[in-house]
């Protein structure tokens, strides 16, 4: 049969299947029950959808994924049934796209083929019934296709521009926002069966879990699988790595953070994710779920119910036990090859051995030893990877001899019998690796287990070193050589990574040694001290360097705060208050305002009052930090309450109290400015400047001067505004800081725009954006880009302005923060300029440019505009 005819047969089968699913969902109710709930379908169209393949003889709109997703929502179907319906729609979209590209006038030819096929099936009578009853979608030639036959070329149907992603008002997030999938550093070996089955399951199921013992290669398999199916998900593939998370309350926020979504003040993280991604066809990978099983199960279930086009792929040591979950067990690599060649386990051994010893080959002499080594290691990829590295030191025979004795000691005769056999085998590998380490290497391995994520080499040396450890660097180098640590270079600096299973083994050893409390204390003290050193540089030329450094240490800063929250001792309390406060600028400049607000709520919930006179100032600064974050996150009332709590405590005359009072006045001035109370804004800002004694790292004087300038600008007092803003700029430049300077340049540009100096404004705005992008300040860049769009519109570039507004809009939408931070004066200006651009372009052209900006995302839009900035 001609390939075109085969595609038509598949499409006919899919249409019959969709009709059968819709009829089943209606359950005998009249079709008007569905028509009344659909926004883009009338009764005749739905009637044709219910007729299945007969639609091919007509020219009506076929029911694709978007239409069937809307139907599923209208009928309130359970998410598994809804997922099946949408999967059929995806198949229809893919087949329609392939037919469109293969034949001109394909609908007429498809209808002719369908009619002739029905004649051949039904005989010359053309009967529409079989055996006196209506033909069922599962009967005849089309029924064989419905039973699971895939496209004839064996590949998944290519995506033909999924309708659900068009016109939905939600575009792909900017390319810079999501974390890219990690690139493989070594070749992928075997797993053909699991890859084929995983691809099939992701076509037919909405939740797929890869299960298996630690070290079996679930994450690597998941990433390889995603490479094969990524074209099915035009809405994007997202990887959420959960291995480093220990706090269940942070899982929802981790998902929102990776996707680039921050939360409105009263919005739940998963609501924000569902709002941002909407009906797009998305694949979410939740990696290493076993230690957060309950919360991950609830998360997956919630998102699947809220997002009809979502697929979820998880890796875990055990299933989530959620309705609709399909489990794909991942076992060790096969030790035997039924075709007579080498097995996947042997192939992996050889591949990694050749990396260690380039001349290593499988020969008749060593073949039995290689196979025996793979058998003793049960074909576990992690065990094989670790063991093969020892060929640097041992011959293959010596390796096999030691390995055999090590496994025997921890096999049936001496293992923990209650443990799963795979766990006993992997533990044996780690036990053996541990015994091969020097005393210093063992101690460093144990202490490194309290870290999270990647570790900067100097941090590892500082936390792991003491008088009893002779040479920490040598111990770290030994662990790298034994593949218990891996090295990754970031911007030319060395960082270390420890596998989760290796870390867990180290943590068990640490706990057994009785040194866990000391190790977590050392970690906590180091990272809260690191935050303090960064805070001391906030008003210096090193500000940018420290903000970038803090961004690299996010995982361990969270870990340190978690450790501090579980310790009631005075050092932990001081570290928690001072460390939390010290991160204020990091959380704002990195766009993690919501996360910062979350942590400060926990800190202040733990200490609603000052925990002693000696920590009163630390407590007040933590309240100020919390108030700043609450305000920017849109919770003005909670910000006001935090500032109110400071005032009764801050009446002291000693050193440091005046700086706290000044900072409170500055922040009250900012809050008043945002709601248009210019009198109060200026009163508090002037009070902040009069305080005299100020803490430079809180940037109080700069912010107060800029607030006075912005208030004067809003009042129409241009000369006064320029005076205040230039004073703030001079102060910033004298200190060398760049975060607040970028906002001062932005504020100057606003005033230049208001008085007609638009070319100067554009120059200032590009200078500001250069600083924002150096810091990775995405929300700051969105703020400045909005103003740049207004200025470009005044320079008769309305198309560029509309595109930039669309790009900036997506940054705000995914952040969850109020647009333009909720500043009422700027929002009013934005609305005026938006109306002007719409009128200039006309609504149709404006929408086209605006949507193009949404699709590009802010980072790419700015990259494309940068060459034309002058």
List keywords for this structure.
single chain; 870 residues; mainly alpha; five-stranded parallel β-sheet; three-stranded antiparallel β-sheet; 40 helices; globular
User: Proportion of β residues?
Assistant: 5-15%
> What is the arithmetic mean of pLDDT?
81
Question: What Rg is obtained from the alpha carbons, in whole angstroms?
Answer: 31 Å
Q: What is the share of helical residues?
A: 55-70%
Let me know the largest β-sheet.
5 strands, parallel
Describe the protein in words.
There is one protein chain. With 870 residues, the protein is mostly helical. It is built from 40 helices and ten strands. The strands form three sheets. It has a five-stranded parallel sheet with strand order 4-5-6-3-7, with helices on both faces. A three-stranded antiparallel sheet has the order 8-10-9. A two-stranded antiparallel ribbon has the order 1-2. Helix 4 (65-74) packs antiparallel against helix 5 and helix 33 (718-735) packs antiparallel against helix 34 (739-754).
Indicate the topology.
Layout: H1 3-26, H2 32-35, H3 43-49, H4 65-74, H5 79-102, H6 106-122, E1 129-130, E2 133-134, H7 140-146, H8 192-204, E3 207-211, H9 218-229, E4 237-241, H10 251-259, H11 269-277, E5 282-287, H12 293-306, E6 310-316, E7 325-329, H13 344-356, H14 367-376, H15 381-388, H16 396-409, H17 421-436, H18 439-448, E8 455-456, H19 457-464, H20 472-481, E9 486-490, E10 493-497, H21 500-513, H22 516-536, H23 543-552, H24 554-565, H25 570-582, H26 584-589, H27 593-606, H28 616-632, H29 636-646, H30 657-674, H31 678-690, H32 700-715, H33 718-735, H34 739-754, H35 758-775, H36 778-794, H37 798-815, H38 824-841, H39 843-856, H40 858-865
Parallel strand pairs: 3-6, 3-7, 4-5, 5-6
Antiparallel strand pairs: 1-2, 8-10, 9-10
Helix pairs in contact: 1-5, 1-7, 4-5, 8-9, 10-11, 11-12, 13-15, 14-16, 15-17, 16-17, 18-20, 18-21, 19-22, 22-23, 22-24, 22-25, 24-25, 25-27, 25-28, 27-28, 28-29, 28-30, 29-30, 30-31, 30-32, 31-32, 32-33, 32-34, 33-34, 34-35, 34-36, 35-36, 36-37, 36-38, 37-38, 37-39, 37-40, 38-39
């Amino acid at each position: 049969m001609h390939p075109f005819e085969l595609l038509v047969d598949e499409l006919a089968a899919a249409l019959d299947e969709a009709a059968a699913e819709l009829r089943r969902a209606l359950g005998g109710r009249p079709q008007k029950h569905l028509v009344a709930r659909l926004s883009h379908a009338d009764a005749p169209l739905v009637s044709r959808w219910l007729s299945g393949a007969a639609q091919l003889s007509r020219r009506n709109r076929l029911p694709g994924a978007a239409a069937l997703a809307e139907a599923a929502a209208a009928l309130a179907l359970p998410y598994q049934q809804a997922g099946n319906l949408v999967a059929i729609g995806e198949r229809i979209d893919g087949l329609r796209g392939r037919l469109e590209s293969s034949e001109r006038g394909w609908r007429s030819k498809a209808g002719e083929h369908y009619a002739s096929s029905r004649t051949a099936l039904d005989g010359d009578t053309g009967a529409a019934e079989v055996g006196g009853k209506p033909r069922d979608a599962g009967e005849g030639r089309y029924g064989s296709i419905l039973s699971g036959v895939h496209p004839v070329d064996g590949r998944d149907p290519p995506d033909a521009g999924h309708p659900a992603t068009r016109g939905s008002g939600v575009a792909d997030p900017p390319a810079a926002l999501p974390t890219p999938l990690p690139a493989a550093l070594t070749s992928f070996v075997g797993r053909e069966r699991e890859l084929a089955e995983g691809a099939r399951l992701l076509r037919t199921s909405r939740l797929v879990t890869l299960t298996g013992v630690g070290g079996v290669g679930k994450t690597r398999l998941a990433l390889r699988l995603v490479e094969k199916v990524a074209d099915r998900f035009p809405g994007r593939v997202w990887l959420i790595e959960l291995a480093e998370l220990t706090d269940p309350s942070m899982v929802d926020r981790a998902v929102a953070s990776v996707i680039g979504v921050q939360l409105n003040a009263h919005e739940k993280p998963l609501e924000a994710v569902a709002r941002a991604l909407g009906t797009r066809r998305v694949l979410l990978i939740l990696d290493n779920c076993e230690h957060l099983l309950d919360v991950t199960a609830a998360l997956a279930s919630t998102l699947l119910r809220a997002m009809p086009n979502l697929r979820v792929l998880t890796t875990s040591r055990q299933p989530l036990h959620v309705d609709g979950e399909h489990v794909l067990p991942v076992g060790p690599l096969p030790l035997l090859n039924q075709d007579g060649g080498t097995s996947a386990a042997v192939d992996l051994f050889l591949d990694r051995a050749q990396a260690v010893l380039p001349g290593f080959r499988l020969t008749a002499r060593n073949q039995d030893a290689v196979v025996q080594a793979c058998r003793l290691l049960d074909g576990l990829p992690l065990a094989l990877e670790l063991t093969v590295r020892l060929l640097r030191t041992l011959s293959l025979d010596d390796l096999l001899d030691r390995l055999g004795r090590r496994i025997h000691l921890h096999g049936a005769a001496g293992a923990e019998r209650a443990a799963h056999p795979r766990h006993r085998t992997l533990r044996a590998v780690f036990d053996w690796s541990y015994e091969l380490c020097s005393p210093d290497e063992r101690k460093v391995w144990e202490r490194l287990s309290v870290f999270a994520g990647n570790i900067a080499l100097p941090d590892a040396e500082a936390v792991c070193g003491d008088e009893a450890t002779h040479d920490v660097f040598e111990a770290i180098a030994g662990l790298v050589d034994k593949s218990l640590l891996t090295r990754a270079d970031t911007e030319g600096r060395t960082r270390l990574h420890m596998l989760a299973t290796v870390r867990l083994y180290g943590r068990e050893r640490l706990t057994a040694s009785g040194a866990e409390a000391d190790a977590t204390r050392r970690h906590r003290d180091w990272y809260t001290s690191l935050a303090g050193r960064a805070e001391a540089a906030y008003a210096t030329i090193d500000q940018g360097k420290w903000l970038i450094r803090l961004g690299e240490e996010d995982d361990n800063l969270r870990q340190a705060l978690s450790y501090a929250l579980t310790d009631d001792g005075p050092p932990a309390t001081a570290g928690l208050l001072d460390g939390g406060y010290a991160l204020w600028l990091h959380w704002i400049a990195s766009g993690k305002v919501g996360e910062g607000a979350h942590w400060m709520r926990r800190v202040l919930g733990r200490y609603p009052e000052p925990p002693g006179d000696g920590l009163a100032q630390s407590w007040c600064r933590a309240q100020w930090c919390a108030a700043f974050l609450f305000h920017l996150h849109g919770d003005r009332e909670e910000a006001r309450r935090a500032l109110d709590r400071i005032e009764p405590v801050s009446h002291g005359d000693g050193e440091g109290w005046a700086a706290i009072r000044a900072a409170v006045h500055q922040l009250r001035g900012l809050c008043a400015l945002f709601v248009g109370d210019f009198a109060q804004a200026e009163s508090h800002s002037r009070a902040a400047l009069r305080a005299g004694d100020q803490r430079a790292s809180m940037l109080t004087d700069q912010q107060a001067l800029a607030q006075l300038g912005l208030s004067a600008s809003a009042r129409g007092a241009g000369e006064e505004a320029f005076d205040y803003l230039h004073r703030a700029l001079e102060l910033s430049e004298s200190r060398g800081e760049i975060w607040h300077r970028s906002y001062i340049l932005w504020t100057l540009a606003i005033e230049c725009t208001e008085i007609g100096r638009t070319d100067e404004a554009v120059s200032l705005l590009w200078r500001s954006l250069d600083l924002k992008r150096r810091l990775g300040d995405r929300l700051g860049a969105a703020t400045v880009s909005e103003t740049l769009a207004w200025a470009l519109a005044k320079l008769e570039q309305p198309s560029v302005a509309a595109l930039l507004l669309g790009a900036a809009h997506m940054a705000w939408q995914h952040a969850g923060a109020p647009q333009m931070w909720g500043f009422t004066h700027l929002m009013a200006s934005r609305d005026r300029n938006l109306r002007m651009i719409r009128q200039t372009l006309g609504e149709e052209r404006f929408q086209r440019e605006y949507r193009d900006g949404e699709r590009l995302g802010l980072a790419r839009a700015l990259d494309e505009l940068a060459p034309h900035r002058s």
